[in-house]
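Feature request disguised as a bug report, sorry. It would help if multi-protein outputs had a clear separator. Right now it looks like this:
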Amino acid sequence: MRPVAQLLHNKFVVVLGDSIQRSAYKDLVLILQRDAYLSLSQLKNKGEISFEQDCLVEGGQLGHMNNGTAYREVRQYRTDHHLIRFYFVTKVFSRYMDSILADFEQGIKPDLVIVNSCVWDISRYSREWALEYKESLNKFFLKLKTILPEESLVVWNMTMPLGKKILGGFLVPEIEHMGPSLRFDVIEANYFGATLANKFGFDVLDLHFQFRFSLQHRMKDGVHWNAVAHRKITCLLLEHVAQAWGVELPKLDQINADNRPPLPENRSWQTATSSAPARYTGPYKNQRCSYPPVMPAIHYNYGPVDQGQRMVNGFRSQFCHDDLPPHMTAGYQSFERETFYRGANNSAAAPNWPVNNLVMKQKRRKPCTRERLHPYKY
């Protein structure tokens, strides 16, 4: 679509993460070419040689296809004025991630980095994952801050809600015992990722908050999401980028998945998804977020909500449908109120901030549009 192409004109975009991030990359590549949803097969496939005129650079079908932590997949979509690259990673900081960052340090610097690494980190490496995950996040953000120029925009995507029952290739037999508790571990890990990203001055997009009422768009495997959800993710990302760069997109509307007809009840990977062209319902607004960033509060007891915690009114049936305790996603606290995060029962330390869906850090200067003399090279 033309407004998207204009926003990302001559920009190098990098997407880092797992299969959810891969689908986000695919939807971004698709929307740059035509107004349509991803098909079910496009959502399911991994490691294919080509997707919508992109190319597989490394791993995938060029190597050994597997569900292990050593799986690699690097994809790239390149035109005369766009370069979108995806790296599949299973750990937020590792020897492999260090090699990726070294490529950025020695080569073309990304204008936009969209990143998330969580579910694999907290399930595949250690049962006592919290300390190691926080250390890895610190190393990753520090290295990223060191090698990227100030004008580069980094958006940390918080992990989307997991289901109570997880199926499919991700949950290998060795970690099946973690299935019931993994959705709660993700909330804790989201807290670590968001607070550390904010500490290093990076932006945070709270997809867990955005999709807490959209569980009908999650696949039956409890991890992946359908094409409607991924188009909404794309729109949220583009809106975030436009706001951060101070760009007003002309009449580019955002899909609101909650306002569209629901998908069939059998939400499995085998169920066909509509591939009809996307029709948008609401305009972007070039509006800077002026209040402090906020994120879901974390409470590990099932008692009364702490004083100062702000409750969202009108829980819908989809929210409680998955037995997710309301206190795990209902409250909002300020990143700047550290005493409240430590549990201080002080109403003065926990004001009622307005809800900020995007968790924006600050408006940034848009990278200069530059005509490159040669096509992008890997």
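(second protein starts here, but nothing in the output says so)
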Amino acid sequence: MSCNFHLLVSRSDIYHGRFLLVLSRQSVLLRALSTGPQISRSLQESYRLLQLPDQGHSSPGQVKEAYLRLAKLYHPDSGAPTADAVLFARVEEAYRAVLAHQSKTKQPDGGKEAEEEESRGTALPHRHYLSYEGVGSGTPSQRERQYRQIRIDRASEQVLNYRQREHERAAAAEGALVERDMRQRSRKVQITQAVERLVEDLIQESMARGDFRNLSGAGKPLNKFEHNPYADPMTHNLNRILIDNGYQPPWVVTQRDIRETTAQIRNRLLDGRVRLGDPMTSKEHRQWEQLCASVEEELVKLNKMVDNYNLIVPMLNMQMVHFSLSREIDRAVKGACQHRLDQQRERDNERERRKEEKKQAIAVTTPKNTKQDLMSWMKALLRLTH
């Protein structure tokens, strides 16, 4: 009797390199006619599809586990890239055939009844194992709550592990910084000690040669610090030491920065106003407004600097007030007017100076021209007489 075989290949089977060989309807007749201890070809294909040994030595638990593994791969609702409805239907059919075969081998008398009961059975609980990562038990809502709690515990554990790793990394970095600082400090101490030893050796050599015998003021105390009758000597000397080593209090540095910034803003306003005409045109007026807007932003920063200065200055009479844009603009306008007056005065003075120089030049050259005219007249008169 001839049997027709069909090779069923799906996209996922090609991807995984699996090929399903399924018998046609004539395989049912072959299965009915086949007798003996050996299992039929369709049942062998079912075992192979479930990736089980076809000798029938697999337990029901192994069969169920194989079916669940394949259901997770090929079920349409699994969301896996290998999902295939046709292949899952084949897997489910093979699973039922294998269960029916095992029930027949264990209960030969009630084979048909077991097969019918299996066929009439409820839907397989594969969805139970495809959701919530197979965690929990009970109703879907109970399993959802259990799975949510497990995810919370897992996230908390991951956060704790992350914090612990960060603390360990920070401690290691801090330890490396402390070790580097200690090495640098020890190196500076070694260099300082070496320089001190070298200077001491040079001083001893100079003393041995007698270089310090003829110094003025020998045997007298050194007058290193100037005397200030209005301050405590200790405070005065400490301040002098700080000044000699380049130390400046923060309020002094802030005061200097305020003075420099104020001078820059005022010079900028004055130069901008001088370059513009008086009165200004519409274009020049727009340029002046843009300059004032930019200066206003700088004044906001300057006033913040003034606030910081007032908080740290030691004396109240040294505190400063805020800078106003209107006052600075008036100052710039007055400065521009004064600058124009100074330029006009300079031009007038230059004009007067040039006039005086011209008069002096004319006064010097006039006698010479008169003498030359007189000599020429006398020569012309002598020619006429002759």
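Even a blank line would do. Unrelated, but nice: The longest helix spans residues 140-209.
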